[in-house]
């Protein structure tokens, strides 16, 4: 399998608090990697390092062979790093569709010269992006609320909108930070289906999730973290039967 996301001896600390201690992980195209561990293990911090919210102290991160060292978040997004957030960070005053349309990697209307001299091309690009956004909403059974204010829809629907926004970035790396927290029923099943489809399309997916059933259903393999370190890695079933995981994660 092709390695699309690679972390090599990545380190990060805040004073005396170590959130990443020589982390090395490869995520392959078509793989769904589970990242599990107790609160404070460093799981979300790892996502913050990949997406550029935190700079690394040392080590390297590459996506599709391209180094991310020193790049700001927006440039990493343009290279294909997409993520969701524990707290969804949706734009509360905007509609569902508008929230999704902020996320494409390349939008020609960002340059003033193109707005002035290439109006026809920009209008065509906007139409194509709108059609793509509606197609993603259709996959999630959310077309009926496309023009609803995002603050007026259910929590489960908001979680799906967060995922839809990440999917508008069609790059190689998809980071899902607790996508199932507070999600149940139809939204839960839809989320699983979409994640499977994205992996089948060749994306490298990493999921931070406390819902063990979700991890068991979806992930090819998993990494168990605690105190900024990788303690164990392997199949999900192997990790769930680990005494180390039981002691640190479940408190047994």
Characterization of this structure:
The chain contains ten helices and ten strands. It has 252 residues and is α/β, with parallel strands linked by helices. It folds into two domains: 161 residues, P-loop containing nucleotide triphosphate hydrolases (Rossmann fold, 3-Layer(aba) Sandwich), CATH 3.40.50; 82 residues, 3-Layer(aba) Sandwich (Rossmann fold). The strands form two sheets. It has a six-stranded mixed β-sheet with strand order 6-7-8-3-9-10, with helices on both faces. A four-stranded antiparallel β-sheet has the order 2-1-4-5, with helices on one face. A hairpin with a 2-residue loop joins β1 and β2. α6 runs parallel beside α7. The chain is globular and about 55 Å long. It holds the Pfam family ABC_tran. This is Amino acid/amide ABC transporter ATP-binding protein 1 (HAAT family). It comes from Jezberella montanilacus.
